[in-house]
Amino acid sequence: MKRLIIFLMLVSFAQADYLGSWKIDDFLTVMETLHDTSGDAVAATGAVHCWVYEDVTAAQIIDEEMAAFDSITGLYEERIELTAVAGFEAAKTYTVLIQATADGVSGINTHTFQILAAVDVQTVSGTAQTGNDNGADINTLITEMAKVPKSDSNVSWNATALGAIEAEAVDALESFNLDKVAGVSTGVAADGDLTTIVVDGSILSHMMTPAADTSTYRASTDSQEALRNHIGDGTNLSEAGGDGAQLTAINLPNQTMDISGTITTVTTAVNVTTVNGLAAEVITAASTKADYLTEINDQVVDVMTVDTVAEMAPAGAPETPTMEEILNYLYRKFMQERHITATKDTVRNWADDADLFDAILSEDGTTFIQQQYITP
Hints:
CATH architecture of the domain at 2-115: Sandwich
Mean pLDDT: 78
Radius of gyration: 44 Å
Number of strands: 15
Number of helices: 9
CATH topology of the domain at 2-115: Immunoglobulin-like
Shape: flat
Largest sheet: 5 strands, mixed
CATH superfamily of the domain at 2-115: Immunoglobulins
Strand order of the largest sheet: 2-9-8-4-5
Distance between the termini: 43 Å
Low-confidence stretches: 1-14, 238-242
């Protein structure tokens, strides 16, 4: 476990801090800052000593000189590996003593920390456990666990449990008549009332009849096979249409409709006025086609060189912009005044009296991040 611990040491007086609890082989980092009596950071005169003592034993187990950190005046660090080889032991308390001299004044600072004690798993809440105190409870648990179905390759499934699960599943299917979908007969005659099997108003009833009333469903006329027999051979296409091979008598009401495909021959009377009017609008001659193309080109040029786009209201960029929004946001960002600080990029409106949109800026020493532009 690594931790950075920062402490303040005034050369005019000493203070002590608790550094926490650690495990053997952890790394403990001690940071010290030196200040003169006026509070200004000051470099030490000579070495900054770091000594570690175990409990109240006067012998030092660590004797190191702290190093200046990152060329910052008055800031020193020492990283200590809490190993057994170095003399650290579980359940012991240690004192870190820092000694330095600055501006002719010598000062010390102390910190304390401890090494965590090992837990005796044989002792719980002060009660010593014997070899098999909980044996009876454990054996009961084993017996109960044997009742749970197993799915691994080494133990067979528990037949009693599986039987109970299957019975519950069957009950659930039967309660909603789902068993009668394929595996069990409904007991209702071909054109009989299915209301007791498929409840009126259910999703299936809506699929069976227009009124969601299964009492009116008749297999002889409403089943898929009956519908196929009704229209599939083409004899009834005057009512329902089909693949077109038998489309000989279909009554079209007066209405507007889209017809796909190609009409090659019209054998009955057609509203000639309407057809001729349509033909007049169709491009057929080369000169007419050129005129249309010229008009289309003129309109495109007009959009590109004459039409203008109004400045948008202050708002963040949309997730799915139109082409007008894309061009508008790009133009405003690159052509209008921007106010950029260490934490925000703000785009001003054309009149420079309000913000249009802005984005949060951040940097962690490695990566520069510009967030999405949002409403200011």
